[in-house]
Specification:
Blueprint lengths: L1 H8 L22 E2 L3 E4 L4 E3 L2 E4 L2 E7 L1 E10 L3 E6 L6 E2 L4 E7 L15 H6 L28 E3 L6 E2 L3 E4 L7 E2 L3 E3 L7 E4 L4 E5 L4 E6 L6 E2 L4 E18 L11 E6 L5 E12 L4 E8 L3 H4 L7 E7 L4 E6 L23 E8 L5 E12 L4 E5 L6 E3 L11 E4 L1
Length: about 400
Amino acid sequence: MSTALLIACQPSPPTSEPMTAENSEAFNTPLLIRADSITMTPDHILSIKPTRYQPSLGLEGDIEPIRQVNLMAAQALTVEQVLVNKNQRVEKGAPLFTVRRRAAPTKPIDSAAQPTNEEASVNSTEAEGNNNAAIKPEPSAASNTQASPNDIAINSTNALKTNADVTVDNEISNVTNSDDNVGLDNNQSSTSPEQSNNLLTVRASFSGRIEKLYVKKGQQVAPRQPLLTLSDGTELHFIASLPIEAKSQISVGQTVNFTADGLIDKFTGQVSKLTVTDLPKQLLVYVNVVDNEVSRNQIKPGMKVTGRVDYGQIEVGTIVPKRALHNVDLTVLHRPPYKPLRPLSANVWIIKQNQRLTRQPVEVIEYDPLTKQYLIAGITNDSLICLANLPIESEGKKAVVS
């Protein structure tokens, strides 16, 4: 003890670095940094304060209709009639517009290289099993236009994986749309070709609202040009992306509590589907909005929402002040909900039982605006926390408290 007191009373050597912290006079006391030790005051030491918390993942996305279809031209067309207006509500089977196929220039084609109707319609999209067919056509080399990930084409014999876009073709016969499949509906025609005059009448495959209308009477339409967007705003969802590592922590059916920009109320959703993407490798989480009195009149397509889904068992973390955390930007935590979408990586200096300093990586879980304290995970109860912002060379040195 006498040796420690003598050291503390000596003038600071050239290598010492005085550290200060908000609202703490103890941090005006210089740290004595030596070759194998660092002398500090008891106010630089914080005991572990364990607290229990529920692990959760943050989800962020934009509200959009679950059922939505974007009609696009598969070939050159002339719009003969437009039977609806933008923002108009239509019922399933209602006629939307009529188009006439424009004759393409005839060119000699080798019959061996000529694609079948099935290949030309599919454009490299894989068919999925359904009540009518389970066909997986090979990619066609005859298609000069590469479909985007959200594009699909339909013919009268296949039910194809759907995302957002459907191609209007002279082969279209019966089309329905849902969140999972564009399939065949033997009871309802989406298009009715009139062979006598080469006309196509395009009909609504489900009840909804005309979200966008790109064409007018007499317009000449080129291949791949958008025609119309139909959506059903009564059923909504949002899609969030997570690191692929989160796949084991989330499952279909889990409850998601979320908020929307500009709204005070909290809303409820449910995980409806999980999809893994390749480029980049990530997990897409589909969250259906629970239809109730709170959400029905407030949640609209286009809103940005932020939610959380709980997972796993209750875990134990530690409460620390801001000065204990290093190498991290905490700004995102200083506004509701005071939790990051993903835990923030930070570093904390700890003193192990052998009194040696270690720079410990931790995760910042949450911020408490009342106490201005942070919840972190990654520290065991057999350690002490050093609140000083030490240089990196302090790793392994002995902590001397005086």
